[in-house]
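With this grant's support, we have settled on a layout for protein records. One resulting record is reproduced below.
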Amino acid sequence: MHNNLQYQVFTEQYGTDPHQTGDLYIPAQKSKGTVCLFHGGFWKMPYDKSQLDAVAVKLVENTFCVWNIEYRRVGYLPQGYPETFIDAIAAINQLAPLSKKYPQLAPRPLYVAGHSAGGHLSLWLGNHKARLGKHALTIVPDVFIGLAPVVDLVESYRDMQRREFITAFLGCTPDENRDIYHQTSPIALLPAQGKQVIFHGEHDEVLPIGEIDDYARQARQNGTPVEQIYIAQGTHMDFCDPDSSSTSRFIHWLNAQSELQAV
């Protein structure tokens, strides 16, 4: 446990594996809701939740509860599928017992947000087919947020710079198992079950902005509204910097939602 005059931090498990863990930030003041964070890093080791520690602090200083989630990744496991997806579901479901343990945890409104590969997990969870066997969300978040997210795993596979990360994550190519790609790619699973918001830097050097445009267009055609917020001069890693204009836009948007609900 970490104590601060403005907030407390508790590390909690949502499963028995050492990587099935998260840091729960709870503000001293009444919370505006809870933000779940999934970090990026190609779904692989050594990238971990510490990427978003500073952003989590910024969010709790804005009086949001934060659940900064770790999950099993490539390098610890031979591949990410299906364990990474199972962990994403289990981590969100863990909020129910956590809210009983910590009465000051405000589970509503509930925002699920992820950066890059974590943004893929967030948008995947936002789909009504986001389940693996017996594993399914028992809590329905209010908004699913992608921060420079991966939205199309087949298109990512076609990009030579991303191909090796995709095949390592899913354990196959699209030709070897198209079904796995259809089960795990947000664009293939439209329509989604909840509100989706995508923040993306106009100068993102890793994920082309055109893939976000294609995803949003297909989503709207399928009856899923996607709010697109593009950040001028924004780059891919800005969302890990608590003082960047990209992170500021994200937090400003969250604060605006709480003001709307207060009216």
